[in-house]
Amino acid sequence: SNTNSQVSEPPACLLKPLEVPNKLLMGPGPSNPPPRVLAAGALPLLGHMHPEFFEVLDDVKAGIQYVFQTKNEWTYAISGSGHAAMEAAVVNLLEIGDVALVCQNGIWGGRIAEMVDRNGSIVKKLVRPMGEVFSLEEIEQGLKEHKPKLVFVTYGESSSGSAQPLEGLGDLCRKYDALLLVDSVAIAGGAPLFMDAWNIDVLYSGSQKVMGAPPATSPISFNQRARDVIANRKTKVRSYYLDAAELANYWGCDENPRRYHHTCLVSSIYALREGLARLAEQGLEKSWQEHRKCAEMLYEGLEKMGLEMWIKDKAIRNPCVTTIRVPEGVEWKKVVDHLMKQHKIEIAGALGKDLLGEIWRIGIMGHNCTPENVNRTLQALKEALDLYWKK
Ligand code: PMP
């Protein structure tokens, strides 16, 4: 007999039930979805071309328009995590040789720059230390010097904890005939954001932070200026999967009948719909207020323990992700591990090597944004510091 054709044993690990611990996710994302969102993900499957599912897509579109405060027709969710939306923005807006001005004050500018480079486009960078933000003056300088087709900024930086002021930036980009691309993955829904009023041309986010759905789908919106740039491309978008015009058709954003493009993530869209519904019921302004209030509680509690925030100026802190200076003599990881082992609470250290050992990051997002969760986290942190911080 031919031994090569013998069926191997089924993997023993799969013959045991799936077990997952229940953790409180107070890191920079994902956050815990509320039970209704998880339940929505378990609803009966529909086909991705069924009329009932198109209605769910329409709800999601309306929800994203609300969270982004936009009337843009091309507003939908990319099938994939935040990186897929980043890549969608880059490959649709830029062609080979086009110049992008990337403002980098943390991980995310670096990631976008890498994507721009892989797309055959040209990266020009403005760089600031993590925790600082960019002034309109220096961005204007960059616009004058590099004449980019696109400017990228991160609104809510999750690696440094900063929030880039956006007012006036859209107008500035228009003055120099550049598109403004903004990353709002770690902040949309948790702080004021007005895509249309602030003249943001392309904006994306992610399902798994303030929107409170599992990671899987990434809201994105293109305004008319961005659509014109896409319509006037000389070359095809280099990604089939992320082609914005094709996705717009599937999401019912043009006058043509919806065509199959790829099998949409049906259950993940249910979950996103419920996350957006939760935000709609709460009301955006209330959500912004709650995130601000819980962030203030967190700052106060941390300062009471003798800790210092990484970013001194409250006005440029991302309320959804707080960065804390690790005190001299404390091993950051022991504290993180203590919270996880003793309390099943996730907080994080640095992302990337730049601030490794220097900061902790605590996220307060969406369903997790409650005074109870802030207090639980503070208490657990105090316990860990009593053990590991010898003053
Ligand atoms: N941008 C920011 C600001 C983020 O915080 C994240 C996720 N940490 C991303 C982009 C990428 O999202 P994802 O991990 O879902 O691909």
From TrEMBL:
Keywords from the UniProt entry: Aminotransferase, Pyridoxal phosphate, Transferase
Cofactor(s) the protein requires to work:
pyridoxal 5'-phosphate
Documented EC number(s):
2.6.1.44
Q: Name one GO biological process term.
A: glycine biosynthetic process, by transamination of glyoxylate
Q: Which residues form the Aminotransferase class V domain?
A: 47-348
Highest taxon in the source lineage: Eukaryota
Cited InterPro entries:
Aminotrans_V_dom (IPR000192), PyrdxlP-dep_Trfase (IPR015424), PyrdxlP-dep_Trfase_major (IPR015421), PyrdxlP-dep_Trfase_small (IPR015422)
GO molecular function: any one? L-serine-pyruvate transaminase activity
Its cellular-component GO annotations read: peroxisome
What enzyme category does the UniProt record give?
Answer: transferase
Family in the record: Belongs to the class-V pyridoxal-phosphate-dependent aminotransferase family.
Q: What is this protein called?
A: alanine--glyoxylate transaminase
